[in-house]
Specification:
- By secondary structure, the chain is an alpha+beta fold.
- The protein has 2 domains: 59 residues, no CATH class; 87 residues, PH-domain like.
- It is 27% helix and 29% strand.
- The chain has a 7-stranded antiparallel sheet.
- The radius of gyration is 20 Å and the shape is globular.
- About 3% of the residues have low confidence.
Length: 168
């Protein structure tokens, strides 16, 4: 659907506006992607827009990140190794997702059941520990309180008194 809006058959098509940069690392790869995209468009051109939108959404529903609310955060990893990156931090009914801001590549998805998190009221930090991966990280964002509330609500834990994830 999006491709019909940008006129895929133009010789000057810039695939970087519709595809992640890591898929277009060489001229050969870009030419291959352009021909595959053109062929796919010809195959679906006979379908109406509503059908294409429905098909697109049905594909999207299979992604773990579907339905996530995203926030931009600085992620500071302390385990298994020390690192720092700027990421889109997404929260949905599955869990927590981190997507690199620079490459738009999914870095990690964590199920609610494997996470422990804590938040200090009034501070822009959320401490997160993923038990299965043994990842210890700090998310720094002005929306830390919102991420905390979403994690509690969507994991079904709520903010009951005595909860492991209760704000300090």
């Amino acid at each position: 659907y999006v491709l019909t809006k940008i006129h895929i058959f133009s010789d000057k098509l810039d695939l970087s506006c519709i595809l992640p940069v890591h898929l277009l690392t060489s001229k050969e790869k870009a030419a291959d992607m352009k021909s595959r995209t053109s062929k796919a468009l010809k195959d679906v051109k006979s379908n109406n827009v509503a059908h294409l939108q429905l098909e697109f959404l049905s594909c999207c529903r299979h992604f773990r990140t579907y339905g996530s609310t995203f926030f931009i955060a600085e992620v500071y990893m302390s385990q298994p190794h020390t690192s720092h990156l700027r990421a889109h931090c997404g929260v949905n009914d599955y869990g927590l997702h981190l997507i690199s801001c620079s490459s738009m590549v999914l870095i990690a998805s964590y199920d609610h059941r494997e996470l422990k998190w804590s938040y200090d009221n009034g501070k822009p930090f959320l401490e997160v520990y993923a038990r299965a991966h043994r990842h210890q990280m700090t998310l720094r964002t002005p929306q830390a309180a919102y991420i905390y509330m979403l994690l509690n609500k969507l994991s079904g834990q709520g903010a009951e008194k005595g909860s492991l994830n209760e704000p300090r």
